[in-house]
Specification:
Largest sheet: none
Radius of gyration: 17 Å
CATH topology: Arc Repressor Mutant, subunit A
CATH architecture: Orthogonal Bundle
Order of helices and strands: HHHH
Number of helices: 4
Length: 82
């Protein structure tokens, strides 16, 4: 593979990655508020379910269920794009 081919592949991967990132961001934005908050707290802030429950004023089971539901929705919606 030539240097030009390598750059073309890298550029294509970057464009695809950017498009996928934008799609995921849009999908997360469209999640129900509690699911979105629970997912962000778990994924980006690395909080425990107990900490998420405290922040969202719910039980740990509800916090876990909200994270699971958000992830399930994203996986179901993205399907073959992952």
């Amino acid at each position: 593979m030539s240097a030009t081919d390598t750059r073309d592949v890298a550029t294509a991967a970057s464009v695809i990655g950017t498009g996928l990132t934008e799609l995921v961001e849009a999908m997360v934005t469209n999640l129900p508020r509690t699911q979105r908050a629970a997912l962000v707290l778990r994924t980006f802030h690395d909080l425990s379910y107990a900490e998420i429950a405290t922040n969202l004023c719910c039980s740990e089971a509800e916090a876990q269920a909200n994270v699971y539901a958000a992830l399930r929705t994203l996986r179901d919606s993205l399907g073959d794009q992952l």
